[in-house]
Task: structure prediction
Amino acid sequence: MIELIKDLLNIREEKILYRKDTPYNNIVVIDDGKKIKLILDSTYNLHSVLVRGSLFTGSYWDVCALLALLMCANIKNSSIIILGFGGGSVSRIIKHIFPNIKVVGVDIDKHVLFVAKQFFNSSADLLVVSEFSSFLETVKRKFSVIFIDVFQKATVPYSLFEEHIWELIFQKTNYGFIVNTISTIQSEDIVDASKKFFPKVKVLKSPESSNYIVFGIKSAEVNIMNILEQNFLYVRKTLENKFEKSQILNNEITDILATLDYIFESIKYL
Result:
């Protein structure tokens, strides 16, 4: 009876699975019985979530993962780099749907990468300990999509508004970028900083959280919408096929396909 009342009132007893203070973060991993949550600072903002019995998170990580796939899923030898890997929520979604897409995760804190593997079932082809701008300056290869989810407490670092960073991002991506922010001001500042290098930039409001996601397409070709539409149809078909084969995913098909449609409708007006 007590457990039933707790469920009805949405009361969950939280258990701390891991705690460690590092030079970069105050890491706390919490299990509330339904979700495993990653907290990295005193703001108590969530930096990653693992929902038990679900591939998806019901928040901005789903939007970012699907948006990245819409940019490159149907392209040969696709690769996605995640700067600010955290618990790897975006990587887990991408690798489950498209295992052949190469994912590289970068985080300044080696203990965060340990937590990602230990508690969040994260999957990536390579994990690198590095500050994100230093990585962009030294890496030799290009990636299909660059996803940036870097925060200092509740704000994106100032370097993300500097021209030389956007020149590096432009040089190191073949198709486009995604940046997660948590305010309209931050997102509009990112738009202003990036538009010198990316001809098509837009802000997408996450429908299930307070996040604002900025994304830019590198190509200004007339047929870019045809390419994005092909990717959209390819991702949608792949999801539907996987839903049919998975008991867990089958329970999420309506919501996640609605999110995919919402993203594509936003892209159509680039």
About this structure: The longest strand covers residues 173-181. The radius of gyration is 18 Å. Residues 1-10 have pLDDT under 50 and may be disordered.
